[in-house]
Write a structure and sequence with these properties.
Elements: E1 2-6, E2 9-11, E3 17-24, E4 32-38, E5 45-50, E6 57-59, E7 67-72, E8 77-82, E9 91-100, E10 103-106, E11 110-114
Parallel strand pairs: 2-11
Antiparallel strand pairs: 1-3, 3-8, 4-5, 4-9, 5-6, 7-8, 9-10, 9-11
């Protein structure tokens, strides 16, 4: 099983980034996909979720209207489009494939830094 995030980097406040997470080794289209993030010295927090069929999307309040989660089941990939970034969005972003608490997978994370 692999979840490989990419697309992180350094961006100025107000800028945009698109994160990708490529999955392999499990039935991707059967899993809900989530993005989490962890800032230095803070707990990991839920950011966004898309259900297996992409019928529903969920966001934490602080990113709603700025971030968009999407998936391509043909490519086994989930995306996180992040717009209007602020320094408070600085964190390591993790991809998570979730079916149950006991049946979930994590990526290694990608760093997003928002700074002028």
């Amino acid at each position: 099983v692999q979840l490989v995030e990419s697309g992180g980097g350094l961006v100025q406040p107000g800028g945009s980034l698109r994160l990708s997470c490529a999955a392999s080794g499990f039935p991707f289209s059967s899993y809900d996909m989530r993005w989490y993030r962890q800032a230095p010295g803070k707990e990991r927090e839920y950011v966004a979720e898309i259900t297996s069929t992409a019928s529903s999307h969920y966001y934490r309040a602080s990113v709603k209207g700025r971030f968009t989660i999407s998936r391509d089941n043909a490519k086994n990939t989930v995306y996180l489009q992040m717009n209007s970034l602020t320094p408070e969005d600085t964190a390591v972003y993790y991809c998570n494939a979730y079916m149950t608490t006991q049946n979930q997978y994590w990526g290694q994370g990608t760093q997003v830094t928002v700074s002028s």
